[in-house]
Amino acid sequence: MPYTVQSGDTFWSISQKLGISLQALEAANPGVAAANLQVGQVLNVPGAAPPVAKYTIVSGDTLWSISRKVGTSLGALQAANPGIDAANLQIGQVITLPSGSGSGQAPAPAPPRNGGPVPSGGNYVAYSGPASNFPDPRLWANWETLWAQNSRLMKFHDSDSEIALIQGSINTVSGESGVDRRVILCIIVQESGGNVRVRTTNNGVRNPGLMQSHNGVEFNPADPAGSILQMIRDGTSGTQFGDGLKQCYARYGNWYEAFRAYNSGSVNRNDLNDPVSATAHYVRDAANRLMGHTWNGM
Fold first, then answer.
1. Which of 31, 82, 235, 279 is the most exposed place for a label (fewest CB within 10 A)?
2. Which residues contact 154 (CB under 8 A, 6 or more apart)?
3. 260 and 148 part of one domain
């Protein structure tokens, strides 16, 4: 069946809306550039069907536990209920199940193959598997929540003026690049804790700065404003030596695979906790940050 692209659509959001895998949607549209969808463009949709089942909330339910119970992914369940407040489910509330869901108890999910131990404290979720198992970006916390939550971590390293420069630079680079400022913020915290003086790593590739970019600039105390802005540009829009978040998203069409590519350089699309020689829990942590989750040692 065909699908007509609407304003704001991405391959990721369309796959979640229709309850199919991202890979199946891409395979059905081999000539379509994921980074350049046009409103009104018609896509082929393999095996898509509307939701056909309902579920009534009982005591103790969360969207995660329901997804396990009915045998669907968390991302598909969230996409089938776009207006739901996941943090405020009510007993007796009726939600929609994606097509293909069951109604009984599914087997307990296996732990992430390479994700490492799950952090304690807070409301950290052990997302695993392909991108479709990770939260729909429409459910991410808003900018104000994420800035308040993460800027307090920067106070361990940075002055108030440096934190203000980080905030202003995120806004500037987001406007220049089109990359969601929440993504930029959470990858800054993921890579460096927001520490402008973070050390440069070099494991065959030099990774400096707030976003540990590909051979970009480091903090310059003689030019804090200029160097902070450039560090964030390097990580977001890339350098002459390597890709930034923008290029990774253009290649993969969804943020979770883009995060794995940014961290590892290559992607196991079936298991985003596969470190591919880098950090196993990188994508899982980034997803939790974007959802506004907190945990010990975040």
1. 31
2. 162, 163, 166, 189, 193, 194, 195
3. yes
- Separation between Cα atoms, residue 70 and residue 80, nearest integer Å: 13
Residue 131 domain flag: no
Residues 76 and 202 in one domain: no
pLDDT single digits (tens) 177-231 = 999 999 999 999 999 999 999 999 988 889 999 999 999 999 999 999 999 999 9
Q: Are 195 and 205 in contact (CB under 8 A)?
A: no
Torsion of the alpha carbons at 19, 22, 27 and 28, rounded to the nearest 10: 40
pLDDT tens-digit readout, 150-167: 999 999 999 999 999 999
pTM of the model: 0.65
Closest CA relative to residue 218, chosen from 232, 204, 238 = 232
Owner of token pair 């506004």: 292
d(CA 167, CA 258): 23
Token code pair at residue 47: 């095996």
Q: The CATH number of the domain where 58 resides is what?
A: 3.10.350.10
d(CA 163, CA 175): 19
Answer positive or negative: Cα dihedral of 53, 67, 72, 16.
positive
Q: Cα separations (Å) of 201 from 74, 185, 206, 213, 214?
A: 35, 20, 6, 10, 10
| Sign of the torsion formed by the C-alpha atoms of 172, 292, 132 and 279 | positive
Mean pLDDT, rounded, for 118-138: 82
Nearest to 20 by CA among 160, 96, 102, 130: 130
